[in-house]
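Complex 316.
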Amino acid sequence: MVERELSLVNEGLRGIVECAGPEINAVGDYIFNGSGKRIRPALFLTAAYRVDVSSDHLIDAAIALELIHTASLLHDDVIDQAAIRRGKEAVHVKWGNKISVLSGDYLLSQAFKILVNYNKPELLEVVVDIVEKMSEGEIEQAFASIDSNNLESRYFQWIGKKSAAFFSGCCKAGSLMRDGSKEEQAAWMEYGYNLGMAFQLIDDLLDYTGKKSITGKPLYGDLNNRVITLPLIRTINVSSMNKPVNEHFITDTATSSQIGEVAQAVIDGEGPHYTYQKAEYYVECAAALIDDLNPESEEQKAILKQIPRDVLMRRN
Ligand code: FPP
Ligand code: MG
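Predicted structure with magnesium ion bound:
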């Protein structure tokens, strides 16, 4: 339904970095090669979709959302010290932390430049809220340690901010651009929030159960980089092996065989299934909201039903 628009988004992303000079263009060319899922602009465009109105005026806003997402990944890979992104070396591995962080800053500036040109304060407000929540979520995650209290509820809070708020904001922004009523906008926000929660839960699950050739990320990357996620939290909370898991996890000097032991405990435990069940719950919540989204057509309704299923079944 928004395929044409998404290819214009891809062209626009390349256009922005091409105009920026050789250094930024080199990094931009490397990251905007079409390998991302573009799920955030796709959600925005779907929420804003109207049969009777051309979507051309929405392309720039969709580009801005993808620029913000890419900026956050350039920062996130430095924070997580993740070496691989989308099947190739992360920007900080290829060019260093400085270039990764600064390129992220540049992309962020371009996103806000686009949004300022729209001259639509409500849209700007939604996007500022996304960035605020994302940063808060990342900070909360960075402060958490394996022996923090209430780790599971804190996890749900930080993924709500770092991921679900973005999906929710994309949907709200789309509904806003379509002149949806306040009720419609609220329903879209909730739909996006539930999708985003499920999306992040599956992301964290795939770190333990995924295939590197499909996810484009190494298995146990989170574990190796001491990123605490639900499969591990659940293992610690219920497993009789929680002591070795705990001990190995908190020592930065853990050997690869000790990390392997922790990974095995997670895989053998109920953490992965528990995480999947939580994702299923959020997907069901999203699916229950379809009629409140006021779909334009049967085609749009069918797509809105399919998106939650795809989020649950995704392998990359
Ligand atoms: C990926 O999560 C990262 C995020 C969802 C958000 C990152 C946000 C920031 C770094 C805040 C700064 C924001 C901006 C706009 C510069 P993940 O690490 O769970 O997923 P991954 O496995 O794909 O790395
Ligand atoms: Mg990461």
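The chain has two domains: 1-119, 120-316.
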